[in-house]
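Sequence only, no structure available. Ideas?
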Amino acid sequence: MKILVAVKRVIDYNVKPRVKADGSGIDLANVKMAMNPFDEIAVEEAVRLKEAGVATEVVVLSAGTSQSQEVLRTALAMGADRAILVETAVDLQPLAVAKLMAAIIGREAPQLVLLGKQAIDNDAGQTGQKLAGLLGWPQATFAFKMEVAGGVLTVTREIDGGLEHVALDLPAVVTTDLRLNSPRYVTLPNIMKAKKKPLDTLTPETLGVDVTPRLTVLEVIEPPERKSGMMVPDVEALLEKLRNEAKVI
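Reply:
I predicted one. Tokens follow.
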């Protein structure tokens, strides 16, 4: 079984984003970038399936500028076999990414597609669902646990009421949640090995996909600063504040 995993290059989750002075977007100058944490979990799960003998090949895919090679090499160091970069300077939106992935899937014919449930830069959480719709494949989102047996994929999902178990025929699309696994630490020897693994570069034009943005960002603004809280000596003082100042009771 071949697994295709999509990864995205985003601002490192430890970095506080800064808005550009003109409000046109996020300032990425000299900002540390990394693999989207949810996608890192997807890569880890794919590699574990390969190590368990369920999968025979793990292919990682990213779309974006040439700098996206960094996250692809990280995925290769984690254990993926080869990588594909769809290089473009266009600010890709979820539907465009889904169309690019569908084109790659037409070439690669994987039996399972994994990707993070959302990217932490825009929190859209749409790409996996749109990809499944374009392909007409079954999908499972917010995967908490995965098992593959007899050509059937069983996914445990986290929902508001607890856990939900769904069974899908392959091929299928799965988006991963935080508690699916803990990604491994990438060692220096594996980083060196990853440099020798194949990484192919394509463009949207060669795939015949129009990635023109359909939405326009009008303005990006900083959220308002929250006022600092205050300490009260007892419950009576708290109630007085809620009555007279907050006026909530």
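The first strand starts at residue 2 and ends at 6.
Hope that gets you unstuck.
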